[in-house]
Amino acid sequence: MPETEVDLRRWRILLLSHDVFTTPQAGPVVDWAARHDAGLYQLPLPAHALRPRTPAGRSIPPRVAELREEEAGLGAVFADIASYLSAGYHLLGLAITATTTRTAAGRAWLQRVRRLAAETTGQELTTWVLPALPETLQP
User: In a 10 Å sphere around its CB, with 0-12 CB exposed, 13-18 middle and 19+ buried, how is residue 29 labelled?
Assistant: First the structure.
């Protein structure tokens, strides 16, 4: 199992969408994690996030190769998470920003993340849209 900051927490992991730390919610999320002794694990940038925009401002859908690369990156993340779970850690869920699912590409990304989480960890991924996070947690 890799040794990272999450190893220092009390057996709890909260996944974060790629953009949480670029928003005003970053501070409250870190505070929340500290209060709940949870480690934070940021997911990689989605394939659609760096795509150019049309002149009308719409995102250009990711290419198949970009989606495959994204899938491989997420697969590695969830393999890592699965190793934590087998060591006794608990996956709390995924915190996302409201902008994460504002577009069809973002909603599709979230579905891919949930599917990979279920396939790799055997768990459904509870998702919170920030600033909503539970104030009480099961141990």
Answer: buried
